[in-house]
């Protein structure tokens, strides 16, 4: 099992206010699976993705990623695992505005210590793979939303991660552009990558192999979800 989550809780504490965002989540995802997570706003989807993506740690519970007990790791160890195993795609693209598309894709490789020539070559190949070979020198403001999201996907692939996690990757795109982005995720899945995407959209979720329903910080059945 690539992702194994047991009894996961997340409590956010802000002064006197506590938000119990996850309330005992159990979840297993196999290598190569194509999974979506659906749930209403505030149900804990992003919180769960952040923990799976090693951006945050649970308050309670276990998380094994590729057999590694992530819940026991220190912050630097967590960052190290994240760099090697996770590619993140966000709703708002999160590209650095002042550098080119090519440099954005190179960035994770800079942090991973890949040499200049090699990372330039790979970044260019990745941009070509997402159909943007001719936009390499554009800055994010000089790209359309769909193009920016393609750059973000190329960046997520830079270090050849085990898992691609995407939080509402089509949320800021019109439906035709969103379809093109989903086609790219389909291709990544066909190529053997594990892909997990969060969405509000039934149609988007319907393209994946399995839908996980989240409600009030818990995983529920489809029937419970719809009642
Ligand atoms: N950093 C934080 N600090 C405090 N509370 C937070 C934090 N992040 C999320 N929350 C709270 O945790 C709950 C779950 O939030 P989360 O962002 O996981 O929901 P979501 O399912 O992704 O919602 P949406 O569909 O609107 O993106 C919410 O009540 C939210 O207010
Ligand atoms: Mg969210």
UniProtKB/TrEMBL annotation:
CDD domains: ABC_MJ0796_LolCDE_FtsE. The keyword Transport applies. GO terms for cellular component: membrane protein complex; plasma membrane. Keywords: ATP-binding, Nucleotide-binding, Transport. Gene3D superfamilies: P-loop containing nucleotide triphosphate hydrolases (3.40.50.300). GO terms for molecular function: ATP binding; ATP hydrolysis activity; transmembrane transporter activity. Pfam families: ABC_tran. InterPro entries: AAA+_ATPase, ABC_transporter-like_ATP-bd, ABC_transporter-like_CS, ABC_transpr_LolD-like, MacB-like_ATP-bd, P-loop_NTPase. It comes from the Bacteria. Residues 3-227 form the ABC transporter domain. PROSITE patterns: ABC_TRANSPORTER_1 (PS00211), ABC_TRANSPORTER_2 (PS50893). This is ABC transporter ATP-binding protein. It comes from candidate division WOR-3 bacterium. The lineage of its organism: Bacteria, Bacteria division WOR-3.
């Amino acid at each position: 099992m690539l992702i194994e989550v047991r009894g996961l809780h997340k409590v956010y504490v802000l002064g006197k206010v506590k938000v119990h965002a996850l309330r005992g989540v159990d979840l297993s995802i196999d290598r190569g699976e194509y999974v979506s997570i659906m749930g209403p706003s505030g149900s804990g989807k992003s919180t769960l993705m952040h923990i799976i993506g090693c951006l945050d740690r649970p308050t309670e519970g276990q998380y094994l990623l590729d057999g590694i007990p992530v819940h026991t790791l220190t912050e630097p160890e967590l960052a190290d695992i994240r760099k090697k195993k996770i590619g993140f795609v966000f709703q708002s693209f999160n590209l650095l505005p002042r550098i080119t598309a090519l440099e954005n894709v190179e960035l994770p490789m800079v942090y991973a210590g890949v040499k200049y020539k090699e990372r330039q070559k790979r970044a260019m190949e990745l941009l070509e793979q997402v159909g943007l070979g001719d936009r390499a020198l554009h800055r994010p403001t000089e790209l359309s939303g769909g193009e920016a999201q393609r750059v973000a996907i190329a960046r997520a692939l830079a270090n050849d991660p085990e898992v691609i996690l995407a939080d509402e990757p089509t949320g800021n795109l019109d439906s035709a552009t969103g379809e093109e982005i989903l086609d790219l995720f389909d291709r990544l899945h066909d190529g053997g990558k594990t892909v997990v995407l969060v969405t509000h959209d039934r149609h988007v979720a319907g393209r994946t192999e399995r839908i996980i329903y989240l409600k009030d910080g818990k995983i529920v059945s489809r029937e419970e979800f719809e009642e």
